[in-house]
Every structure is written in structure tokens, then in C-alpha cells.
Description:
About 75% of the residues lie in helices and about 0% in strands. With about 250 residues, it is mainly α. Helix 2 (about 15-40) runs antiparallel to helix 4 (about 55-75), helix 4 runs antiparallel to helix 6 (about 90-120) and helix 4 packs parallel to helix 8. It starts with a helix and ends with a helix.
Amino acid sequence: MTLLAVERIKLFSTRSPWWCMALALGLSVGFAGLVSASASSSSQVSVPVTQFGFTFALAVILVLATLSVTTEYRFNTIKTTFQAVPSRTSALLAKTTVVALTTGVLGVLAAFGSLGIATLIQPNADLALNSEADWRQVAGTGLVTFVAAIVAVSVGILIRQTAGAVSVLLAYSLVAENLVQLIPSVGADIHKWLPFNVANRFLTGNPDGSFDMGPGSSTSTLPPWGALAYFAGFSVVMLIIAIAVAKKRDA
């Protein structure tokens, strides 16, 4: 518990996490408001449409999670942490837990904030959460951001430099996975199993035309909850590798 408290204090004692959280909320809610206001009729605004800004918010959340690690390496405070805590594993797990919980809550706030602003702008739109798919589309964002933060922290531990870690994460999640589909013959099959594509499967389920303005539809063939389990498993593997590497090299 002491380690968790220390990591919480370290995370919230600097300005960058606050700026990232504000930007993530602003992007998610702002895009929801923009899309809702530009709709010609309330029938064009659905629950998935309100989550149009999720991809942009997720990018900022990945940056937030990465900075929580790379900033410590930059200012060499990670060395003090490792000297004070007998186990590097405990220290890194505590940091990962705090960051993941924070981003999970942030994801839920952003999703429901987006739904709320859309409801205010289009009060006649059918935005009630009447199905498991609707709840997964909105509340499920917290689970996705929770797991995505674990991946981002792991990359931060492995690369240690802010510019490099952020570049790798954003380039991979926003560009590289989609480019894989262009590989002749095998690209589409590989893309089905890439982590962020699978994560979108959890949110969108079996996408149809109503999801065109929401988070990107997924080519994964896994069932939604199976997709979340796969994404979580990937994050655990990444974290295990990152901690193993951190234990073997100098801080």
C-alpha cells in the first residue's frame, strides 16, 4: 500500500499527467459535441457515434502512461526508487497499477462525458444504454484504457526515452497496424491478431454501418470478451518482458 501511495503522489505531483488527462477528456467530449452538433437529424447520432473521439483520447492516454515511466528515467529518480525498494518488480508493478487505474477511470469519464454532451445537443437521439453492446461501447472504454496503459508503461520501461517510446507507441497503434493489411497474401490474417485491432473488437463487437463514426471497426474474429482477454494477455506478456529487462540492466 505504501508503494501505491508513493506512486500516486509521484504521478499527480507533476503537471504533464494533468495536462494529458485534460486533453484526453477535451478531445473525447469535444469530438462528441462536434459530431452531434453537425448531424442533420437526431437519428444520425447513436451511442457508437458519441465515442468518435475515443481513438484520439487513447493516443493521449498512451502518452500519459509512457511519461509516467520515461520522466523518471530522464531525471534519474527511478534510481532512487530502486535503491529505496528492495524489489524492482514491486516498484514497477505499483507504478503500473496506479497508472492503469488512473487511465481506466479517465477512460470511463471521457466516454460518459461524450455520451452526456451528445445527449444535451441531441436530446431526441436514441442514446439510452439498452443493450450489453451499448454498455460495452461506453463503459468498456475504461477496461481498454486500463489495459492499454499497461502496454504503454511496458514500452516506457523498455525504451526509457520519452521521444522514442511515445513515437513507437503512436506510430504502431495509429499507423503500423493498419499498414500490415497491405502485406500481400498474409497481411489481413496477421492484422486480425494485432493487439489494438483486437481491442477495438471488444468495443465494437460485430460492427455494422452504425459504427462508422465510432472507434475503428475491427477485423478480429474473436468474440468481444475473448478479444479483451487477448488484449489483456498481450499487456501482461509485455509487462513481464519489461520487468525482466529492467531487473537485468542498470537504472
